[in-house]
Structure formats: C-alpha cells, structure tokens
C-alpha cells in the first residue's frame, strides 16, 4: 500500500506545489549534520539541560535593563539553531552578546500568496542598552548571509 501511494503521489501537484513522497529511511551518521556535542561553542542558555532559568533571567525586565534586546530580521533559512547562534555571534563579535533567541518563522497569511517567502527574525540580547544601540547603528540595513 505504501509503495503504491509513493508511486501515485510523488511529483503530483498539491496546492500548486509538487509533493515529494518516499520511504522514511534514516540517514546514516555520515550524512547527518554535525552533532552539537562535537562543536566547541554552546548557546548561552541551553534550555534542555539547564535548570537555573529563573536565576539566569532574573532582573531582565527591570527598567534599567530595557533596550538591551534587538530585533534582527530578514534572515535566510539556516540548518539549525546552533548554526544560527554561531553566525549571529560572529556577526556581532565586537559586541558583548548575552543571548540569541531561536529563529521565529511567522505563519503564512490566510489570503494571498500562501507560499511567499516569510521573513524570519530573531532577537539578540546585549550586555547593555548602549551596546545594543551601537550594534543597531552599525548593522541596521546592512546585508548579511547573502540577503
């Protein structure tokens, strides 16, 4: 039954786009992206293993801490969060970056071209509002990652 569905549906147009249908075969270790454990850098806050979130983010919403978070938009598709974290930190290497959020991909609009490229964005937290302002002045409108 699965083989017949694969043969019948592969390449058919669904909502104006060709569907790729094939067997679910696990990739070999050689073809998988590099494991996070083999890389040097780690995200500042690894939500899966750390248990001190309340202490880590304590005071972040205080009035004197406002202005440290910067919106970074128009991002291309990137393979994983670790790559995003490394690339964003490299881009802001002259600044004190405290945290890089996950990439946010908005839902497509309910009308119009549902398959239009949706702008991806994230947030970067700097050590101070001054650092954030300087980074915005330097990078606002600048092309990065070929986009």
Report on this structure.
This protein is of the alpha+beta class and 147 residues long. 23% of the residues lie in helices and 15% in strands. The chain is built from four helices and five strands, in the order αββαβαββα. A three-stranded antiparallel sheet has the order 3-5-4. Strands 1-2 form a two-stranded antiparallel sheet. A hairpin with a 2-residue loop joins strand 1 and strand 2 (17-18). The longest helix is centred in the middle third of the chain and has 11 residues, at 81-91.
Spell out the blueprint of helices and strands.
Blueprint: H1 2-9, E1 13-14, E2 17-18, H2 53-56, E3 69-75, H3 81-91, E4 97-100, E5 120-126, H4 129-139
Antiparallel strand pairs: 1-2, 3-5, 4-5
Give a nutshell description of this structure.
The chain has 147 residues and is an alpha+beta fold. The chain is built from 4 helices and 5 strands.
By secondary-structure content and strand pairing, the structural class works out as: alpha+beta
Q: Report Rg.
A: 20 Å
**Strand proportion:** 5-15%
Percent helix range: 10-25%
Low-confidence stretches: none
Order of helices and strands: HEEHEHEEH
- Number of distinct beta strands: 5
- Overall average residue pLDDT: 75
Gap between N and C termini, in Å?
Answer: 44 Å
Number of discrete helical segments: 4
Shape field: elongated
Strand order of the largest sheet: 3-5-4
Main β-sheet, in a few words?
Answer: 3 strands, antiparallel
């Amino acid at each position: 039954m699965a083989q017949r569905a694969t043969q019948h549906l592969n390449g058919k147009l669904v909502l104006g786009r060709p569907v790729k249908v094939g067997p679910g075969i696990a990739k070999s270790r050689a073809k998988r992206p590099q494991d996070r454990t083999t890389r040097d850098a780690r995200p500042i806050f690894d939500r899966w293993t750390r248990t001190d979130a309340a202490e880590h983010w304590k005071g972040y919403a205080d009035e004197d801490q406002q202005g440290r978070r910067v919106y970074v938009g128009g991002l291309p598709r990137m393979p994983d969060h670790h790559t995003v974290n490394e690339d964003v930190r490299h881009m802001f290497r002259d600044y004190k970056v405290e945290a890089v959020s996950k990439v946010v991909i908005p839902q497509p609009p309910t009308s119009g071209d549902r398959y239009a490229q949706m702008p991806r964005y994230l947030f970067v937290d700097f050590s101070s509002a001054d650092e954030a302002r300087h980074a915005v002045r330097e990078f606002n409108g600048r092309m990065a990652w070929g986009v």
